[in-house]
Amino acid sequence: MTPDELRAVHDALHRLRNELVAAGDHEVAAEWDDNVASNRDQDQSPLVEMGQTIASSRNRARAEQLIRIDGALRRLAEDSAEFGLCSSCSEPIPARRLALLPFATQCVPCQNGSEGAGKSRHRRKVTDYV
Ligand SMILES: [Zn+2]
User: Fold this and answer.
1) Arithmetic mean of pLDDT over the chain
2) What torsion do the CA atoms of 63, 66, 68, 69 make, to the nearest 10 degrees?
3) Domain total of the chain
4) Structure pTM?
5) Is residue 126 part of a domain?
6) Ligand 1 midpoint to CA 1 (Å)
7) Which residues pair with 85 in a beta bridge?
8) Does residue 29 lie within any of the structural domains?
9) pLDDT tens digits, residue range 32-44?
10) Residue 30 C-alpha to ligand 1 middle, in angstroms?
């Protein structure tokens, strides 16, 4: 990805994160910002603790998305050369997809493949067996 594209993804991730945080608990928001800003040891990430203390499924879904966003920001910071490559096939994820889902780790075909669990493989033609 070009530096401009990386910056755009970085901005999009921060925007999404701010929106999610603004929609929820402000104390969590403060802690999250502090964690990202100081970039502490990842093993001591408060994410696990946060996940345990958040009770409702709606909050949990938000927390999971925040974790994905945080993971994407970390990948962006640590290995920007690899960022935007599909984790399955290593092909670049289209910029349009990243604009919508900046934390996506797979391209659409691979995402569909993993979700569809090989459905299309069962659809064999008779000639396959001849
Ligand atoms: Zn792929």
Assistant:
1) 78
2) 180
3) 1
4) 0.61
5) no
6) 16
7) 92
8) yes
9) 555 554 555 555 5
10) 35
